[in-house]
Prior knowledge:
By secondary structure, the protein is an alpha/beta fold. It has a single domain, classed as UDP N-Acetylglucosamine Acyltransferase, domain 1. It is built from six helices and 17 strands. It has helices at 3-32, 79-82, 143-154, 162-165, 172-181, 192-197; strands at residues 36-37, 48-49, 57-59, 64-65, 70-71, 74-75, 86-87, 90-92, 97-98, 103-104, 108-110, 115-116, 121-122, 130-134, 137-142, 159-161, 188-190. The protein has a five-stranded mixed beta sheet with strand order 4-9-12-14-15. The protein is globular, with a radius of gyration of 20 Å.
Amino acid sequence: MSVVAGLLDLASALKQRLDDARLKRRWERLRRLGMYIGRGVNLPASTYVDVSHCFLISIGDWCGFGEDCMLLAHDGQFDEFLDAGRIGRVVIHPHSHLGARTVVLAGVEIGPRTIVGAGSIITKTLPPDSVCAGNPARVLGSLDEYLAKHRHAMTQLPVFDYMRYDIRFLTAERKAELVAAISLTDGYLVGGHSATLRGQGGMRTTAFDRRQFDRYPETPGG
């Protein structure tokens, strides 16, 4: 490795540590302002949070968000006409996951154990154990059906071990193998969540005690 490459790697590692510290400070600030953020939550820095009303927002344990989601707890579009704005709680129950660029409007509840597709606009409450998407978001099916579909697909399609094929461990040979295997079909990277529970995952989450992890509770937690 050249000196320049070594310096670039060092700079990248330092930037990652700085980004991690900033993200943790953001979570702490939101909590101080009254927002509830549970354990093991993946709330990226790109998530827009309605800071002025964040005390109306609650995120349960083990929820996840794709990049550039928006969480809104007020609507002031008609303030000029009525001299008033609407406010409402946003409650995202445990084990719910929102795809990238999902917008959550004031006055809704999601989940628990609800998956929302990328780009959705959530204007009303979404039920537990469901898969939803769209503008406005609507129920497409049950979580059990969705998981059964993917469990079956995992027996038919290429499967790769997260601890070997995650970007942090991906050699040139493994990359070529993966690209060739999914050139005509999809595949699955298996073991990422387990790695997170062991403290070996690449995803940044709020703190959790893995000994207390309840994978899929039958009743809402928190």
